[in-house]
Amino acid sequence: MTEPTYVPERRPIASRNYALSIRLATWLAGLGVSPNAISVAGMVAGILAGVAFACTPLPDYGWLLFLAAAVLMQLRLLANMLDGMVAVQTARASPVGELFNEVPDRVSDTAIIIGAGYAAGGMPELGYLAALAALFTAYVRAEGKVAGAPQEFCGPMAKPQRMFVLTVAALYAGLAPAAWQPKLAALPDRGVIALALLVVAAGGLLTALRRLARAARALRKDKP
Fold first, then answer.
1. Distance of CA 58 to the CA centre of its chain
2. I want to staple 85 with a disulfide (CB 3.0 to 4.6 A). Which of 11, 25, 77, 121 is the partner?
């Protein structure tokens, strides 16, 4: 008698259905690449994105480091998508795999967002606040699952949205002329990265509250 295949509860991502995504996942599965290795690779990309952000105050190379951060954040998201796809294709999805999916995600989020706080035009305090908000949204989702509610991946500032906001900010900071860079009136040394972190922090708090409300509603509905 064969054991039933473990089916993880995954974040809905439309790009999983793209032909290119499926081919890439099939290619990695054919090479025998472990889904957990892909998860760790995504974490490394996230850490490097945070380092790139933090190094942008360096003269002459700031713009290039902003672009590197943007690319690395997208590679992190690509790895986050492919690890689950490869796990399902190779029937290697497991509860242990969920740990390798979740823990590296939290490390990546923290490294990227705190690194952005130290970026040129950033603000360390906002970086730490936004990182806490990101962790809190994931915590609420996990606690809802433990309590018996479906996992809540709703936004408005879930992981894909956080990375989108920071990627756009990084591209703008790296490519826009100095005259186009916004400045905060009260904090003239802060710019587009600080604004992005403020959006991530506020959106993260709203997301956590929304997920908490949805999980509570689901649990009340299931109560006998």
1. 25
2. 25
Using a 10 angstrom Cβ sphere, with 0-12 exposed, 13-18 middle and 19 or more buried, the burial of residue 51 is: middle
Copy the structure tokens of residue 222: 């299931």
Rounded CA Rg of the chain? 19
In this prediction, residue 7 has a pLDDT band, given cuts at 50, 70 and 90, of low
- pLDDT bucket at 222, cuts 50 / 70 / 90: low
Q: How far is CA 213 from CA 216, 220, 224, in A?
A: 5, 11, 19
Q: Is pLDDT at 68 greater than 50 in this prediction?
A: yes
pLDDT, averaged across the chain? 88
**pTM of the full structure:** 0.90
Chain centroid to Cα 199, Å, comes to 15
Lowest-confidence region among 88-97, 116-125, 141-150? 88-97
Which domains can be identified in the chain, with CATH numbers? Answer: 15-222 (1.20.120.1760)
Whether residue 193 contacts residue 169, with contact meaning beta carbons closer than 8 Å, is answered with yes
Residue 199 makes CB contacts below 8 A (sequence gap 6+) with: 157, 165
